[in-house]
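Shape matters. Shown next:

___
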Amino acid sequence: MSHTGHERPPQPGQSARHEQPERPQQPAQPAPEQGGEPAAPPVTLELLALLAAGVADLALDQLRQSADRAQEVLRRSDLRELLTDGVVELRKRGELATRRSGAATENHLETVARRAAERVASEGHPRA
């Protein structure tokens, strides 16, 4: 057979059969669905089981690594200092975050100065 799938007629001096053994026929492909798109390959139970096993193995590996890291931290001799430094660092980050999110709040001195200026203006004194 040629690459197009049709047999060529024998040419003079050639036998009708080719010397190469015939390849087994490939299973028929499912017909394309309506709309011109090929049909998706069927999902088998074996494929689903292999995927589930892979996900479970990955999750267990991550859990093992996390447990190993936790054990290493708990074995440290400077654990108390490490925790104290962590609490101080989190407190500083919290202060910065609240300042950043509360940017509309005014400084205390600015508020006092504004009230004093309003009081002077309400008494009728001209500004200096």
